[in-house]
Structures are given as structure tokens and as C-alpha cells.
Write a structure and sequence with these properties.
With 249 residues, this protein is α/β, with parallel strands linked by helices. The chain is built from six helices and eleven strands. It is globular, with a radius of gyration of 18 Å.
Length: 249
């Protein structure tokens, strides 16, 4: 049985007069149908480094506000949105040359745009978020985009797993919404970062929680920042890309 979902396009990346439908691959049907029993779904299209990507997406957010959520989850379901900062990080990763034995871990992945793009460009990527159902959206999107090697794992920062190993690169976009998550996030970064590894984070440059986090992190990490200007037909903003490396004490 075939299934087609509506396609929406990320904020002004392109404008088309007629509605389009996305044919769901047969391999993704069990996941999509399971999620469709709870959510109204569509497929969001984004273009990164000249390549189109498709992400399974919650079209109607209202049911999310009436559901019980994971005890360590933020009040707003930040994972359902594709953030502009995630596209900046994705573009950065698309230009990075894959290396043998180099593993990438995405924290708080949500829709997992950076991780998906990195996987598509040949990197060994594991994406994580706090509930496995969030990862079901990413698993479906990985099938949509032919990213068969992308690994999806549930990860609670307050109770981090011991079976993931370490990673040469850790990435995350728009992770810093609540200061109560800073201490466990830093501990997770220290736990999973391989010796000599690097962390890349991207956030809206005007986010007020940035510098409280950097103040907390500077005891353990060297921090460098670069500002990027994001612009499309609907929005213009500055995004801060941050590079963290572990200090040698």
C-alpha cells in the first residue's frame, strides 16, 4: 500500500505554487504509520550544500502539549522544529572531509539536520535525543534520504549510557534553552568526547543563555567562536558557531 505525505519547504528556501506529495518508501511505512496514529505528519524539505533533504515532521503541534513527556524533557517540544542554526552547522559539516575511524555524535538532535547531512556526506554519525520516539522520526528521515548508516539512539543527559563509546566530534544545535540542563550537558560532553576531540555547537547569536553556558564550560574547555549570517526569503539572523576542545590540566 502506497502512502504520500504533504511536502512543506523550510522558510522561504523555495516557493512553489502547487502542493507536492512525498511518496513514503516502503521500508519507512511501519514507522510512519505508527507515528501517524498519534500525529498529523508532513515532510519538510531543506536544501543544504546544494542537496535536497526530506525530514518527517509533526504538522500539528497541539497534541504535543497535552501529552505526558519524559521527566527530563523541556516544557516546549523543541525537537519538532528545524532551527536556522542547525542549517548553519549542517553546511559546515557538509564541507568537512570524512576521515577513517572518525565518529560524530549529535546531542539533542531533534530533527537531526546536521547529523543527517553529515551522514549523507560520508561521515560515521550517531544521533541522539531523550526519547526513542523522537528517534523514530529520524529513522524515517534517514530512509527518506538514503542514510542507511546513520545510527539513532535514545540518550538521557541525566542518566547517560555507558555503551556508546567515545567520539572524535560532538555536535549540537540550539541546545542551550534552559540553564538547568547545562551541568548534565557538560558532563555528557566530557564523557563522550574522545581524547583530542572537538565539539561544534551552533546557536542564534542573540540567545541569552549562551554566555552563562560558556562561563560554566570554560573551566574544562577552550572555546572559540565564529559568527555566520543566515539569510533566506523569510528570515535574516546571525548564528554563532562555537568550537570547544578539552583543556589539558
Amino acid at each position: 500500500m502506497s502512502l504520500k505525505l504533504p511536502i512543506s519547504s523550510f522558510r522561504g528556501q523555495d516557493r512553489q505554487g502547487k502542493a507536492r506529495k512525498f511518496p513514503v518508501p516502503e521500508e519507512a511505512l511501519p514507522i510512519v504509520k505508527r507515528l501517524q496514529a498519534k500525529y498529523t505528519l508532513d515532510v519538510e524539505r531543506v536544501t543544504v550544500a546544494g542537496k535536497e533533504f526530506y525530514f518527517l515532521h509533526v504538522a500539528d503541534l497541539m497534541p504535543l502539549f497535552s501529552m505526558e513527556t519524559h521527566e527530563n524533557a523541556p516544557e516546549f517540544p523543541f525537537w519538532v522544529k528545524i532551527w536556522e542554526a542547525s542549517l548553519v552547522l549542517a553546511e559546515f559539516l557538509a564541507r568537512m572531509q570524512p576521515k577513517e575511524g572518525q565518529r560524530i555524535l549529535e546531542l539533542g538532535a531533534g530533527m537531526a539536520v546536521p547529523g543527517m547531512v553529515a551522514s549523507s556526506f560520508g561521515h560515521d554519525v550517531t544521533v541522539t535525543d531523550y526519547e526513542d520516539e523522537i528517534m523514530d522520526f529520524v529513522r524515517a528521515s534517514a530512509i527518506f534520504n538514503g542514510c542507511s548508516s546513520l545510527k539513532c539512539e535514545a540518550l538521557d543527559w541525566f542518566e547517560p549510557r555507558d555503551d556508546l563509546g567515545t567520539f572524535e566530534i560532538i555536535i549540537g544545535s540550539e541546545l542551550l534553552f534552559h540553564e538547568r540542563f547545562f551541568p548534565p550537558l557538560l558532563e555528557v560532553m566530557k564523557k563522550y568526547l574522545a581524547p583530542g576531540g572537538v565539539i561544534y555547537m551552533s546557536h542564534a547569536a542573540d540567545r541569552e543563555t549562551l554566555f552563562p553556558f560558556f562561563k560554566m564550560a570554560e573551566g574544562d574547555f577552550n572555546i572559540a567562536m565564529q559568527k555566520y549570517h543566515f539569510k533566506n526569503q523569510d528570515k535574516e539572523m546571525d548564528v554563532l558557531l562555537t568550537r570547544l576542545t578539552r583543556k589539558v590540566h
